[in-house]
Structures are given as structure tokens and as C-alpha cells.
Design goal:
The chain is α/β, with parallel strands linked by helices. Helix content is about 40%, strand content about 20%. Among the domains are: about 1-250, Queuine tRNA-ribosyltransferase-like (TIM Barrel, Alpha-Beta Barrel), CATH 3.20.20; about 355-485, Uracil-DNA glycosylase-like (Rossmann fold, 3-Layer(aba) Sandwich), CATH 3.40.50.10630.
Length: about 650
């Protein structure tokens, strides 16, 4: 049973419960060769906090001594490890040697009989760049084997290898078909040759095509991914589990693994790592101890896993991936490949995060969060006037405070919409405190590439709105400001701001429905910023200082429920469980019947029963696909029962 705990991008922290314990993902399963044990599994648990391992059932099955012990005492006794054990089937051996002398039914049954927590089907390894006809045949054989394995797995979890070579459409098709089979772990196979040859862009194609075809409720295992330099990218793409024997293989050759690549121990002149192993050896001593290098490799790997988990909790996984991918040209190509899947990734991207938006490079401007903002700006924002747009340059934040004098001057002379040409995209002044615009750190000195994209996004927005006249404001005030063909119009900037935010956050039209004439605003005595919106004494909304977005109250929810028809803004729950949501209890995924497909994680949502009666206001933790797929976990955290 897999449960989602936290997320960023497609990266997620999850909990996988097995018969021998719970595994928190993302995690690394070190490969244990039962014939050559470099580091004992029990020592891995003590030294590195290893929670699960993987071994090869084919190797065990082919050794008479290992086979008999595994069948009589179990694989956990064989390896002296009490935690969850995953077993591979021999698929990789078929890639290396061309064939294996065991059937799918035999090896799945053997894994079941030796007590594997997660067994693997004997899928057909699709080599990269084979013919499409051959790749499709491999998929058909793999699906048949998965269906066969389900019938004999009993209580053992089963990993279904997803194949399709380097054809994105075949990978997606295989994933979709595998999602309809009763397997427990989705495993992406046939990718080791891509990683060995640094074809990370092709790897990204494979992984994201698979993810696009999968139902999201099961963990995703990436076979053979054991180098820390790929963990962050793989996690961002939605991989939850990794395995590899690289820690031992690299050590055998005197190579040390780091998140930024590989170095030979003999080439180290200075100590560049402070893991427990490296702190105990000089570089020269370390180069002579293969076991110590293997331990360093595991320390480096698990430290990267912990770094990724922290980034997911903080909402900074994209920044981590951009830093990691900038260290190698082939990794950078993979990062750029993600742009082709922006529409898919955006559906899982939270609307607000704990951390600020950190600009690391031009690549940052293509994150789904920024693409979403620029798209919604065109779809949902309506300026107070289309007569004139005054475009101000990037500056410190919030823009309204930085340009306070200029704004006052402009509004005293003309009826103009004021837009800041921001690095993240054009920012109407009404939205200047909304996440991630005010909560971003960007350089003041921009590359030509960044400046070009910045100008293009602004021009596209201005053209889309159709302003009659555009004036670009430089640090020297325009001399013709008094000559603008417009007279000033008195409008309440607070009302404009609140309506614009509501439209962007909820839906176009929400602003006028919520922010009516006669609304009462309470402001912070310290900062003067709006904190609460009331109407006739009823609390509609609170404006959060942290991200400049609204917290929806019961009265506000009633207005939106009346304004927008089902399923807009809604999470529909089973009528017989809705009473618990009315009482303030959270919405669990297994009770969700339907959901607005436009909702994103951390959106404010209306919780309704099957008769569309409003029962609660909540904050979504999942999107529609996840709510309808997961059978465990909180789909939305209820703020207030109604």
C-alpha cells in the first residue's frame, strides 16, 4: 500500500508498507550479490540507514546452495536482513547474455516461495533503438507475463517492468496497459544502456512517457539507476525507488561517486568529502581500500536521497535539479527535454510552496509554475482599462512599493494599466504580491537569452489584451506623460487588487462575485497590507502574507459555489461520508467521486456531496488524477465544515 506524504513537481515523498516494514520514498535499494557481498546488508542498515535492498532471484535460483537455503529459510535469512527485500527476475541477465534458462512462471513462483517482499516479472528487455516492430512485440510478451505473474504472486508485491525501447508512444501505451493489471510497483526497465552511455535526454523521454501513461497511485521503480548524479532528476520526473550495484562496481575500479559526477580515488590530492569514511582516511589511504570506497559511494548516495527529500519538503526540488543538471552537458539536455512535457508536469505542480522561487539560470523560466502563470495571465486577468499600458522595468519587490512615486504620478495624469516587465513574465501591479512573483529572487543582470524571453512574454501579453497605446517607462520619466490621450479615472486600487487575485486563483469571474461593493477590509497595522475581506460582517476571505493568495472561508465558499456550476472548483465526495467533512474532518482519497480537473495541489477547493451540496472548504493536497486513483491518504485538508 502506497501513500503520498509530500510533493514537488512530480517528485514525491511516499510511504510503501510491506510485510517486512515501511519504506519511505524516494529511496535507494542497494543491489546485493549473494555470491560477492561487498558490504553486508545488516551493516548497511546500521551504517547508512538502508531500509530496503534488492537482490537477484535468478542468481540465487541458479546456485544449488543458495537456492536450497533460500527455499528452506527464506531470502531474509539468506542475506541476514530484516527489512524489505526486492528481488529481480533475470531480465537484466537476458540483456547481458542474450537469454536466461528460466520461465516467467518459474522465477515469479520462486520469488514468492523465498519470501520476497517485492518480486519482479520476467519482462522482455527492449534494447534502445531497436525497431518499433520488435519493441511492440516485447511489450505484448511483457503484458502476457505480467498477467500470468499476478495469478501466482499471492501476498507478494509484484513489480511490473514497463518496456517499449526508446519510443515514447510505446512506453506510454505499455504503462497504460500495465496500470490495468494488479501489480503493486511500476518498474521502468530497459534503461541501463541509456544511463551507461549518458543518453539522459532519451532517459527523460522514457520516464516521462511512462509516467504519462501510468495511474499515479503506485510507486515507480527505475531499474539500474544507482548514481547520485541522476537521483534528483529522476525524482523530479516521478521515480520513487532506485537500485544499482554501482556503489560496489565503481569501488572495484577505484571510482568514487558524487552528485556532480565520478572521480578516481587515486587522483584526489585533497579531501573533498566529509562523509564518515573520507573523514577517516587520507586520499592516498582511501585509494587502496575498495570496501571503504564502496562505503563512501553509499554515503554519497544516501546523502543525496536525503537532500532530495528535504528539497521536496521545502518546495525547492526544481532548484536542486537545475543545479545538478548544470554540472554536465548531457544532464542539461535532459533538463531541457522536460519542457516537452510541461503540460503534463504542470498538472501536478503545487500552486504555492514554502520556499521562494530561486532563479538559477535561463532554464528556471521554463518551470511549469512560470509557464502556468503566464498562461493564466492571458486567460484570467482583465485590466481595469485597455486605453494605455505603462510598462515599468524589473526592480525590487513588491513592485507597488518600489514604484510608489511613479505609480502615483501615472495615476494622477492618465487612466492607465501599470505592468512590470518582470523576469518571470509581465506583472500587472494588482498581482505584485502573489506567489511566486513577490516571493522570487532573480538577478538584476540578465543574459541576452533571458532578456529576450522576458520581452517576448510581455509583448505577447500586451498584444493579447489589445491595449490602444503602450508606453515603456525607463528610469528617466517619459517626457510625454502629460500628453497621454487619457484622463485619470478614480478607482479603488484595493478592489482592483483583490479582484485580480481572485480571478487568477479561482477562476475568471470570481473577483466580481467575491469582492462586491461595500466589502470591508481589515489591514495589518504594521504593514498596511490587506489581511481580511468581509461583507455585511461575514468573513469571506483572508489574504495570506506568505504567498499573497486567499484562504477561502465558508461564506466565500458559498458565493463561489453559487457562481460556478459543478464541477468547477469542486471535490465531490461520497454522500454517506460527507457528514464527516461537515464536522471538519479531512477528505480522504478513497471517498472522492469526482474532482475539477483544473484544480492543482494546494488550491482552495469546495467540498460537495454527490447532490452538489456544499459541505466544507478545504485545501487540495492532490490533483484530480491522484484523488481518483489513490485508495489511501488525504486528498484535501478541510479548513472549515459547512
Amino acid at each position: 500500500m502506497f501513500e503520498l506524504k509530500a510533493r514537488d513537481g512530480l517528485g514525491r515523498i511516499g510511504s510503501l508498507r510491506t510485510r517486512h516494514g515501511t519504506v519511505e520514498t524516494p529511496t535507494l535499494l542497494p543491489v546485493i550479490n549473494p555470491n560477492i557481498i561487498t558490504i553486508a546488508p545488516k551493516e548497511m542498515s546500521k551504517k547508512f540507514g538502508t531500509s530496503a535492498i534488492i537482490t537477484n532471484s535468478y542468481v540465487i535460483n541458479k546456485s544449488k546452495g543458495l537456492r536450497e537455503k533460500a527455499l528452506s529459510k527464506g531470502v531474509h535469512a539468506l542475506l541476514d536482513f530484516n527489512g524489505p527485500i526486492m528481488t529481480d527476475s533475470g531480465t537484466f541477465q537476458s540483456h547481458v547474455y542474450g537469454d536466461v534458462s528460466v520461465t516467467n512462471e518459474e522465477i515469479v513462483g520462486f520469488q514468492r516461495d523465498i519470501g520476497s517482499d517485492i518480486g519482479s516479472i520476467l519482462d522482455v528487455f527492449s534494447e534502445p533503438f531497436i525497431s518499433k516492430r520488435k519493441a511492440r512485440k516485447d511489450i505484448e510478451d511483457t503484458i502476457v507475463r505480467a498477467e500470468e505473474a499476478v495469478e501466482i504472486k499471492k501476498k507478494m508485491f509484484l513489480a511490473g517492468g514497463i518496456q517499449g525501447s526508446t519510443y515514447p508512444d510505446l512506453r506510454e501505451e505499455c504503462a497504460s496497459r500495465m496500470s490495468n493489471i494488479d501489480i503493486d510497483v511500476n518498474a521502468i526497465g530497459g534503461v541501463v544502456p541509456l544511463m551507461e552511455t549518458y543518453k539522459f535526454s532519451d532517459l527523460a523521454d522514457v520516464v516521462l512517457s511512462v509516467k504519462r501513461g501510468l495511474s499515479p497511485q503506485k510507486p515507480v521503480h527505475l531499474y539500474g539507476a544507482g548514481h547520485p548524479m541522476v537521483f534528483a532528476l529522476a525524482a523530479l520526473m516521478g521515480c520513487d525507488m532506485f537500485d544499482s550495484s554501482s556503489y560496489a562496481k565503481y569501488a572495484k575500479d577505484g571510482r568514487m561517486m558524487f552528485p556532480d559526477g565520478t572521480r578516481r580515488a587515486k587522483d584526489l590530492v585533497h579531501q573533498i568529502c566529509h562523509c564518515p569514511v573520507c573523514d577517516s582516511f587520507t586520499p592516498e589511504e582511501l585509494s587502496k581500500d575498495k570496501v571503504a570506497i564502496a562505503e563512501h559511494n553509499l554515503h554519497s548516495s544516501y546523502n543525496e536521497i536525503r537532500t532530495i527529500k528535504q528539497a521536496i519538503h521545502e518546495g525547492s526540488l526544481w532548484e536542486l535539479v537545475e543545479r545538478r543538471c548544470s554540472l554536465h552537458p548531457d544532464m542539461l539536455s535532459a533538463l531541457r527535454k522536460l519542457r516537452e512535457y510541461t503540460d503534463y508536469i504542470e498538472r501536478f505542480e503545487p500552486t504555492s510552496k514554502r520556499s521562494s522561487f530561486y532563479f538559477t539560470s535561463y532554464e528556471s523560466l521554463h518551470r511549469p509554475l512560470i509557464v502556468r502563470y503566464n498562461s493564466r495571465l492571458k486567460e484570467r486577468f482583465t485590466p481595469a482599462t485597455k486605453r494605455i499600458a505603462v510598462v515599468l522595468p524589473e526592480t525590487s519587490k513588491p513592485y507597488g512599493m518600489a514604484f510608489r512615486d511613479e505609480v502615483a504620478d501615472i495615476r494622477s495624469k492618465a487612466d492607465a494599466a501599470i505592468i512590470v516587465e518582470s523576469v518571470l513574465g509581465p506583472v500587472p501591479l494588482e498581482l505584485d504580491e502573489m506567489y511566486p512573483l513577490a516571493q522570487s529572487l532573480v538577478p538584476m543582470l540578465l543574459s541576452a537569452e533571458t532578456a529576450k524571453l522576458m520581452r517576448k512574454r510581455t509583448d505577447d501579453f500586451l498584444d493579447h489584451i489589445g491595449f490602444e497605446k503602450v508606453v515603456r517607462w525607463t528610469r528617466r520619466r517619459p517626457t510625454n506623460l502629460n500628453e497621454l490621450p487619457s484622463k485619470p479615472v478614480k478607482r479603488d486600487p484595493d478592489i482592483l487588487k483583490l479582484r485580480a487575485i481572485a480571478d487568477m486563483q479561482f477562476e475568471k469571474g470570481a473577483g466580481k462575485a467575491l469582492i462586491k461593493r461595500g466589502v470591508e477590509l481589515t489591514k495589518s497595522k504594521k504593514t498596511g497590507r490587506i489581511r481580511n475581506v468581509l461583507h455585511e460582517g461575514r468573513h469571506l476571505l483572508s489574504l495570506r502574507a506568505r504567498d499573497g493568495l486567499f484562504t477561502l472561508k465558508a461564506e466565500g465558499a458559498r458565493i463561489l459555489h453559487k457562481k460556478f456550476k459543478k464541477p468547477r472548483l469542486r471535490v465531490v465526495v461520497q454522500s454517506d461520508t460527507a457528514v464527516f467533512n461537515r464536522e471538519g474532518k479531512n477528505v480522504f482519497a478513497k471517498f472522492v467521486k469526482e474532482c475539477d480537473e483544473g484544480l492543482r495541489p494546494r488550491d482552495e477547493v469546495l467540498v460537495v456531496n454527490e447532490d452538489d451540496e456544499l459541505v466544507a472548504v478545504a485545501r487540495a493536497l492532490m490533483n484530480r488524477e491522484e484523488m481518483l486513483a489513490f485508495s489511501k491518504g488525504i486528498a484535501a485538508r478541510v479548513r472549515e465544515g459547512i
